[in-house]
Amino acid sequence: MAGDGVTASRSRTRAGAAAGLKVERVWTTDGVHPYDEVVWERRDIVMTNWRDGSINFEQRGVEFPASWSVNAANIVTTKYFRGAVGTDEREWSLRQLIDRVVKTYRAAGERYGYFADPADAEIFEHELTWMLLHQVFSFNSPVWFNVGTPSPQQVSACFILAVDDSMDSILDWYKEEGLIFKGGSGSGVNLSRIRSSRELLSSGGTASGPVSFMRGADASAGTIKSGGATRRAAKMVILDVDHPDIEEFVVTKAREEDKIRALRDAGFDMDLGGADIVSVQYQNANNSVRVSDEFMKAVETGGEFSLRGRLDGAVIEDIDARKLFRTISQAAWECADPGLQYDDTINDWHTCPETGRITASNPCSEYLHLDNSSCNLASLNLMKFLRADGGFEVEKFVRSVELVITAMDISICFADFPTEKIGETTRAYRQLGIGYANLGALLMASGLPYDSEQGRSVAASITSLMTGTAYRRSAELAGVVGAYDGYARNAEAHQRVMRKHAAANDEIKPTSTVATAIVREATRQWTQGNKIGGKNGWRNSQASVLAPTGTIGLMMDCDTTGVEPDLALVKFKKLVGGGSMQIVNQTVPRALRSLGYPEEQVEAIVEHIADHGHVVDAPGLKTEHYPVFDCAMGERSIAPMGHVRMMAAVQPFISGAISKTVNMPEAATVEDVEKIYFEGWKLGLKALAIYRDNCKVGQPLSAAKPNKATETTAATAPTGSATSSTPRAEVEKIVEKVVEYRPVRKRLPKKRPSHTVSFSVGGAEGYLTASSYPDDGLGEVFLKMSKQGSTLAGVMDAFSVAISIGLQYGVPLETYVSKFTNMRFEPAGMTDDPDVRMAASVMDYIFRRLALDFLPYETRAELGIFTAAERAAQLRAEAEAESNGVDLTAMASSAPVETRPEPAAEAAEPAAARSAPRVGSSTELLEAVIGKAADAPLCFTCGTKMRPAGSCYVCEGCGSTSGCS
Asked: Spans of biased composition, class Low complexity (predicted)?
């Protein structure tokens, strides 16, 4: 179980002054090029809009390794291949993409003196190529967009701007944001230097205040798509808690939500992307309040807190701290904004305080550093380091971090920046953001609950090892190519922060042999790194962050993003042959084997999860193992404080912060939000945001539906009238008109077809008689389970009459099926029906049987109800897909994908290749399984519902994100 040790002596990374790095092989084989080690295949990529079927992208004959999933190939082809489609300049192979990036990095490394000799540069190139080819890590999206192209080579995903109290500075802010969005990145800014609306201008008038200038920036962002491609601009706006306009800032987005509700109720189209949603302001930014320890202590004690003018720092008003904290929490409860950033904690871990304070962050709150700076990101796929025996590849992880952090630093040497100020700061301080993805999958595969001391111990250990190694390599780089320019003036502070990281590492309490091995190596890394850094300084003022890893997580075929747990145990999967199917997350069987379950039990539990979407009452699964399979959503979802505790476990080992939103149930109260925000401060987090289910109106949970007002107008308007220009007064009139609908009973004819089924559930026998309309489905049900005159017989008769009348009045059978399946009471257990082998109750069996007999396949697939033959066909399709190189563990594409079909795929039974209608992503599948809508926007590009990725969202189909990484 224990991970491999790493010797303290590292001849491969000796860093003599100006001598260059010696690089040894980690993943590659001498004399064999990485491209020669994989099987390549050609595929056709055709992306369509899930909602209307229109083709929005097509490129045929692209080349990828056979091991890459359909989804990963789709995203790389559509997002990262450069050149106009249909021209000779268009990239068509993953080899071209990797070579374009890696060869640029190698050339820059040689040009700027990073390597001891050309042989080391070649090994460096091959190692990076192998790791990218095998999805061990990925650079952030701007690298793939820009490096090696004629375009400006912007490599950073995260930017922080600065705004001063002048109109010139404010207008520069608008321009700089636009340039950053154009390059495919996001930015954040703190507006606290702008004087408040309660202060005077030099002319004698009253200032507008920062909130008014937010309107112009919001409108600008709403018209610019990042990278000119698929995602809207991502931005963060921050205001200090002592700013006199803080209350106005706090409630801005909550007020806009009230506006959305009022306009929606008046008949306007307020769906995401709707015609009238543009009238809503402040929707393109995340808002955060920068709180101080002074304010939080006043909240704790119930004291007053002073709001201060921006011109002279004079107290403008003393307020009740708890009242303001309640206002912040109330607004977050209503619309998820604002989040909190804990100013004193952030600046206590700041390596460069002599240069300036940290005042802002990027849009997702993971990058926190100097104003007018940027950070380029890269993330490691943790599942690539999990051994078959449950151990962790410590040696390979350490050496992989060395390679990646070296490449990231090289990129700053040749990178372009959107403004000269940002370029100057970034080249002088060289901020990097190495991180990871697939933590949730790693913990589950290891048999560890996400919300547990054991899970947090492993997460903290890995994070400490990653950052400790990154800083040790940074110190070595300083000995080769010099420390960052701002190091000399910040040396004492930088060394103090390194000691804080090392001290936090000493506080980790390993709970397993795996964690013990990782912590032991992390301790060596911090000790060695601080020793080298004390002599050389460090090359980078920042080394690590935990980013959302949205698009690149899908590129690496990760089951989970960033620091997140798994979304759910069931996934929607696209197959190489073009079909799709529902599968159980393949981390689940690996976790069950880690927990010691034999194969027959693993199969039974996986089948139960496929049927129900959760592990509750899975046959043979011990209740103490339920927490291992807890997810972000579903029957057993992780409690909000479980997310906060995980963030607190890893925060001391991150240079920056963590992109993560703490999801809260719809029933959560404002007091619950207050508790989360307060505990975040107590536990030492740097930033925290919450999202309460269904709190936002402006982000629809499914495809936009026409409202009643529109339908009525369309139905009654004369030919040629323009219903879209109906005046508001007319719309209000239409809304007020109520049409009462009364159902009409449709009785069955005297003579009707019927059939009777005898059944046994847990030893209790009975009979089910179902009668149907000659041409229109089920209309009557009779149940008999006991002698006439008994109480049970009477209850069954009454239940049968109630169901039959409901059916005749038009209640759909699928409604009854969704309500009564999975109902649990005795008798329960084995049945004598080959299509329904286990039943949770008599009701569960009856309505499963009715569904099988009277509902079409597509409807049953949504409900997870299949015949024995259909299940067998699905299993055969999985086996055939695996044998043809399809990765069944990856997340599915939401848009249809065409490939060159292989014989085995063509032979698969139709039932296995079909997917439920109206389900185009794992989020939509989860909704169907749990019967509850998920809070997520629809993708602008392909129309599928996105899924959470950190504090952002990512589309599984096309890779578009709502964030900046």
From this structure: 703-727, 895-918
